Amino acid sequence: MVPSRAPLSVPVLVLLLLLGVAGCRCQYKPDWDSLDSRPLPEWYDQAKFGIFVHWGVFSVPSFGSEWFWWYWQKQQYPAYVNFMKRNYPPAFQYQDFAPLFTAEFFDAKQWADIFAASGAKYVVLTTKHHEGFTLWGSKYSWNWNAVDVGPKRDLVDEVANAVKANGNLRLGLYHSLFEWFHPLFLQDAANVFSTNLFPTSKTLPELYEIVNKYKPELLWSDGDGDAPHQYWNSTGFLAWLYNESPVRDTIVTNDRWGVGSICKHGGFYTCTDRYNPGHLLNHKWENCMTIDQKSWGYRREAVLSDYLTIEQLVATLVETVSCGGNLLMNVGPTHDGRIVPIFEERLRQMGQWLGVNGEAIYNSSAWRAQNDTVTPGIWYTWKPQEKSIYAVFLQWPTSGKVTLNVPLVSELKTQVTLLGYSQPLKWTALKTSGLTVLLPSFSIGQMPCYWAWTLKLTGAD
To answer: Are residues 236 and 343 part of one domain?
Structure first.
């Protein structure tokens, strides 16, 4: 179960694809100018909200973060070194964690049901993180995959089938380009990436494999290993993905395809982890973030204050969508395949909120203003086809009134409603622009929802 024993041979078909001689009628050329001209499939912008799942051998120690192996191996992080000294024998190696990655409680349908209940529209699973362990039986990861060791199951296949069968979710797959300690990658790095043994024998064959086998509609690339896109042949692969792959019409990609590509090339931009600029960008972007503020993988030592509250999560979603982004919210399952109750609670709470306020989120667009200029904690979205403006406010005012300074209103045409409440609301216009809305008098039990509320304006600019 040592990741260095991956085979070096590459199938003839993959070689043809890498060399660009497979004979396709290519709409997109293997260069960034051409690839970046591809329109982003509409489903992704309409979806707004997805779930990220970080799961792998790092879920076994479940300490510190999913970068456990790196931090422990480098011997520069005392917390990780001391953790191993206290709990494992001196000869214990990271590879010895793999048989303990058991997944005995893993139920893919249960996962899909929880994710759908959150209101998410897509799920992105880590098929392989930087440790190199694949959650499917990759023939390019001999004895370092979930079919050969540990669960002895194709976990990617189970998740893919459950997500697709759910009917409310789209499948996304995460894949790390590099692997921390793979000998071929280390050899290429020592050669300053003038050789490409690792991508041609490992990374690229794996990418073709998961696309052809599982047919995801989102491919989330990560971990360039400080190597340029030419080393990874990223543009060559993306040209195949957009032109010839079985998901060429619906596939969405991100921007992590080599040094210098992030926030510059690819389908949607991620820019940095937990990216939330707070203003409108001129390119579609995604805020990938974690419920556990300190880790993407599950941590046994986490305390309650490490987890974002539902109020914080709803606020992040609203701000992200208002500024034109999608929110990809991460959970980390346990080594035995459980989504622990605090993650499930947060997901189901988000679904409860979206059940009332989803009209302001799904299929919406960024408006001419993102947040209100007078009242803090108010974020706007709109639907131009319906001529509806949505103002989401994060605090219920003690005065019972909400002032919106940005919309231009008409006393004859403008109507204001509160999502989840059937009656129109009374309002008064301000002198130049904006309005003050009188909210209904609710007891706690009468509230249409909690954590944030949405005013819908029709007949306003």
So the answer is: yes
Based on the domain organization, do 388 and 351 belong to the same domain?
no
Give me the domain span that covers residue 409.
378-458
- Which of these, 122, 114, 94, lies nearest to 338 by C-alpha position? 114
Residues 410 and 351 in one domain: no
144, 133 contact by CB (below 8 A): yes
As a whole number, mean pLDDT of residues 91-106 equals 98
- Inter-residue contact 297 to 282 (CB < 8 Å): no
Do residues 144 and 204 both lie within one domain? yes
Could you tell me the CA-to-CA distances from 390 to 39, 234, 366, 370 in Å, in that order? 27, 40, 10, 11
pLDDT bucket at 431, cuts 50 / 70 / 90: confident
Rounded CA-CA distance 220/173 in Å is 6
How many angstroms separate the CA atoms of 185 and 8, rounded? 12
Q: Specify the amino acid at residue 316.
A: T
User: Which whole number is the average pLDDT over 178-205?
Assistant: 98
Look at residue 170 and tell me whether its pLDDT is greater than 60. yes
Distance CA 233, CA 7 (A): 20
In a domain? residue 170 = yes
| Count of structural domains, the chain | 2
Q: CB within 8 A of 287, min separation 6: which ones?
A: 274, 275, 276, 316, 320, 325, 326, 327, 328
Question: Where are any strands of DSSP class E within 385-448?
Answer: 388-393, 401-404, 415-418, 427-429, 435-438
* Same-domain status, 343 and 405: no
- Looking at residue 234, its amino acid is S
At 110, which amino acid appears?
Q
Residue-wise pLDDT for 238-248, tens only, equals 999 999 999 99
Is 369 within a domain? no
Q: Do residue 136 and residue 96 come from a single domain?
A: yes
| CA geometry: angle 278, 284, 290, nearest 5 deg | 60
Q: Which long-range contacts (C-beta less than 8 Å, at least 24 apart) are formed by 264-269?
A: 265/32, 265/35, 265/36, 265/229, 266/35, 266/36, 266/221, 266/238, 267/38, 267/40, 267/44, 268/40, 268/44, 268/326
Q: DSSP labels for 335-378?
A: TTS---HHHHHHHHHHHHHHHHHGGGTTT-B--S-SB-SSSTTE
Res. 22 pLDDT band, cuts 50 70 90:
very low
What are the beta bridge partners of residue 176?
Answer: 222
144 lies in some domain: yes
